[in-house]
Specification:
CATH class of the largest domain in chain B: Alpha Beta
Strand content of chain B: 5-15%
Helix content of chain A: over 70%
Strand order of the largest sheet of chain B: 2-1-3-12
CATH topology of the largest domain in chain A: MetI-like fold
Number of strands of chain A: 2
Protein name (chain B): Sugar ABC transporter substrate-binding protein
Signal peptide (chain B): 1-19
CATH architecture of the largest domain in chain A: Orthogonal Bundle
Number of helices of chain A: 14
Family (chain B): Belongs to the bacterial solute-binding protein 1 family.
Number of domains of chain B: 2
Helix content of chain B: 40-55%
Radius of gyration of chain A: 26 Å
Largest interface: A-B, 51 and 53 residues
Largest sheet of chain A: 2 strands, antiparallel
Oligomer: heterodimer
CATH class of the largest domain in chain A: Mainly Alpha
CATH superfamily of the largest domain in chain B: Periplasmic binding protein-like II
Order of helices and strands of chain A: HHEEHHHHHHHHHHHH
Number of domains of chain A: 2
InterPro entries (chain B): SBP (IPR006059)
Organism (chain B): Paenibacillus tritici
Structural class of chain B: alpha/beta
Radius of gyration of chain B: 25 Å
Largest sheet of chain B: 4 strands, mixed
Shape of chain A: flat
Chain lengths: 311, 442
């Protein structure tokens, strides 16, 4: 530690000291760096160093409990490109994302509009809609598992009383993903509703007043004032939903364990399975980097799109 | 910020990092030096196991307490870890070089740990004071890899055919024999299942292998069906599945299993919770542990009145998987001798007797089995005799985690997705061969 202080002292001494205010600024700057340093160092040690290490591992044949590792170049990446299970898991993640992003965003915006107005029970409804976010994933998934059950579940009983055909939702590879999607939306909507609510409250009320005076209908107000001014919020919500959706794993873990026949195995679940159940750390890490690249690319494109829309 | 201050900043960061690393290294060395030469000091051992049901947990609590009392210089600290996290946690601890001294490992995972050099061979200890002759040869074989014993068995588990007696009587179906060596054939089972099956009323014929869960469970319940048809999973040396998994008998078993769901429709991909004791399932294949579970949770569902058990069905031969959770010692343990004392305390005759009297499990040792007369009588004799006469290990192979996943996927693809059996089998063989080729060689 002494070496660091010495370095800092010598740095402040060697700095040009002809003008006093400049010297003062410099001192302040250094203090600021001292505040930044601890968190930056932690970030470096606990985030960037492991990432770098993981990147190296992705080029290795590395068995989790084995004592040896060997470099195999791009082999992991090459075999992932033709791995049926990995490609299927990517498809499942995107299926989930493509359905969830528009529906969840629309519902959360709708709910935000509903609870924005101050009525007697607004507080109650705000709480009610937010509760799913607070409930633990494991509990929610376990309860939904019972709801979806064919013989026993409430969902099929409702279908039965409506004289609709019943189905074993989670055991049928064609419908299982829909079961996961419904739970995902149920659980995610509340959080983004709150974000939208904050965005809505930021829109000045006089704009609406002016619109009313000009004779604009509610629908016109929504499309001409609310949506454009919510652009930043919507961008945040869509990007976060995309990232969350592609990273989906916890719900799947409890609800279906990736089944039936891998129909709900998402990319992150696949990576977990490879690395920790099958102990193929190098292979799993390579898959994680492919997913990372995909998520990064999508986020960049989305940010660009929303920025263009703003101007 | 100008370029000079950037340089200063990076220098500061570098110094900080170096300083941090340096001091850590200095501290670590004397620590390692001092603990490698213990002098009459109290030895502390860490022991990890997957936490089980209440009976299992209290049995272990009792054994650890009595060991610590009898050995004043050794202190065993037990950490029960939830089953779902257990394997991941254990593997991470081995990978990071800080495994527990003693660990519980599920039988079929032994070879992958042993091949990686994570386990201490126990053969010499067993020969010294482990009373090896007291354990059936087939059981020891399950825990042997490359001629070394790596785990000390405590209990055995086994599975049997459970059937709803009242449903059988209502349909006038003759009951299967209770003699462990006179099982029904799968055709007889299918015939009965067809008569009992009534999906409109929410009653299904048979759950042949505990549904579709994780690969480990699948291996335990589904491999016996393949063996019963004369099929195989892997070569005896555990290096490849080529020539075994693609045997016509294996394919026949796979087809039969798939037909239960798709052609005959006597099995369902999904059941309500606890279908068997709730009279929604006429037959199921379940383990010895379920007897206690039903007695506890479904007191109105009585053995002998409402249900009975029969040996597992056969096609060309009888077969059942053996191997259970057992204890292993880490190769990194600095106090392996003390660790063996504990392992031998738990899995030796006295310890196993204490354990099995609480959990009602089937003991691995002959001498302990003789202490419990009920093991020679119905219903437990079915499990014991099947295990001793027809028990065989799931393939002993270092690629078990990958192999079981590939085989599980193959069964699911054929049964649930209706994929062509030949293509699914070929895929599984390819995956298993790749996993074996990727094994780190020493």
């Amino acid at each position: 530690m002494t070496s660091v202080t010495a370095a800092a002292e010598s740095a402040s001494k060697t700095a040009p000291s002809s003008k006093k205010p400049r010297r003062f600024l410099r001192g302040e700057e250094i203090t600021a760096w001292w505040f930044v340093l601890p968190s930056f160092a932690l970030l470096l040690i606990f985030v960037f160093y492991p990432m770098l290490q993981a990147f190296v591992i992705s080029f290795q044949n590395y068995n989790l409990v084995g004592s040896t590792r060997s470099f195999i170049g791009l082999d992991n990446y090459k075999s992932l490109m033709t791995d049926r299970d990995f490609l299927a898991s990517l498809r499942h993640s995107f299926h989930f994302a493509i359905v969830v992003i528009p529906i969840q965003t629309a519902i959360s915006l709708g709910l935000a509009l509903l609870i924005q107005k101050k009525f007697k029970l607004t507080g109650l409804f705000r709480t009610l809609y937010f509760i799913p976010v607070v409930i633990s994933t494991a509990v929610a998934a376990t309860v939904f598992k019972l709801i979806y059950n064919k013989e026993f579940g409430i969902l099929n009983n409702v279908l039965k009383t409506l004289h609709l055909p019943t189905t074993n939702f989670l055991s049928n590879p064609d419908t299982a993903m829909n079961g996961v999607i419904m739970l995902g939306i149920w659980k995610g909507v509340g959080f983004f509703m709150i974000i939208f609510l904050a965005g809505l409250n930021n829109i000045p009320q006089d704009l609406y007043e002016a619109a009313r005076v000009d004779g604009a209908t509610k629908i016109q107000q929504f499309f001409r004032i609310t949506l454009p001014l919510l652009n930043r919020t919507t961008a945040f919500v869509v990007i976060m939903t995309t990232i969350d959706a592609i990273k989906l794993s916890g719900l799947v873990f409890v609800l279906t364990s990736g089944g039936p026949n891998g129909a709900t195995e998402t990319a992150v679940y696949y990576i977990y399975k490879m690395a920790f159940q099958q102990m193929q750390m190098g292979y799993g890490t390579a898959a994680a980097f492919i997913l990372f690249a995909i998520v990064l690319a999508i986020s960049l494109v989305q940010m660009r799109l929303f920025r263009n829309a703003e101007h | 910020m100008n370029s000079k201050s950037k340089v200063v900043l990076s220098a500061m960061l570098a110094c900080g990092l170096l300083a941090g690393c340096g001091s850590k290294g200095d501290n670590a060395q004397p620590e390692a030096g001092s603990s490698s030469a213990p002098k009459e000091e109290k030895v502390s051992l860490t022991f990890w196991r997957n936490s089980g049901n209440d009976a299992e947990n209290s049995a272990y609590d009792k054994l650890v307490a009595s060991f610590n009392e009898a050995h004043p210089n050794i202190k065993v600290e037990m950490s029960p870890i939830p089953y779902a996290d257990y394997d991941t946690k254990l593997r991470t601890s081995i990978a990071s070089g800080s495994p527990p001294d003693i660990m519980a490992v599920d039988g079929p995972n032994m070879a992958s740990y042993a091949q990686a050099g994570a386990l201490q061979p126990l053969t010499a200890y067993f020969k010294k004071n482990g009373n090896l002759e007291d354990i059936p040869k087939s059981t020891i074989a399950t825990y042997t890899y490359n001629n070394e014993i790596y785990m000390a068995p405590l209990t055995e588990s086994s599975i049997a055919l459970f059937y709803n007696k009242k449903m059988f009587e209502a349909k006038g179906i003759p009951l299967p024999s209770k003699n462990p060596e006179e099982p029904w054939t799968w055709d007889q089972v299918l015939d009965a299942a067809k008569k009992l099956n009534d999906p409109a009323k929410g009653v299904y014929g048979i759950d042949p292998a505990q549904g579709f869960g994780n690969a480990g469970t699948a291996a335990y319940f589904k491999y016996p069906i393949i063996w019963q048809f004369g099929g195989e999973i892997m070569s005896p040396d555990g290096t490849t599945s080529k020539g075994y998994l693609d045997k016509p008998e294996t394919k026949k078993a796979l087809q039969f299993f798939s037909d239960l769901y798709n052609k005959d429709k006597v099995s369902s991909l999904e059941y309500p919770p606890d279908p068997f004791p709730n009279n929604q399932l006429a037959m199921t294949v379940d383990g010895s542990w379920s007897l206690g579970n039903y007695a506890d949770k479904f007191p109105n569902f009585k053995l002998g009145e409402d249900y009975d058990i029969a040996p597992l069905p056969k096609e060309t031969q009888q077969a059942v998987a053996n191997g259970s959770w057992s204890l292993a010692i880490s190769s990194k343990s600095k106090n392996a001798d003390a660790a063996w004392q504990f392992v031998n305390w738990v899995t030796g005759s006295e310890g196993a007797k204490t354990y099995c009297s609480i959990t009602k499990d089937i003991p691995a040792r002959y001498s302990v089995a003789n202490e419990f007369p009920e093991l020679g009588q119905y219903p437990k004799n079915i499990f014991v005799v099947q295990n001793q006469k027809f028990g065989r290990p799931r393939p002993i192979t270092p690629v078990f985690p990958q192999m079981s996943e590939a085989v599980n996927k193959m069964i699911e693809e054929v049964t649930i997705a209706g994929r062509n059996a030949d293509a699914a089998i070929a895929d599984a063989i390819k995956k298993i061969d790749k996993a074996y080729a990727d094994l780190p060689q020493k």
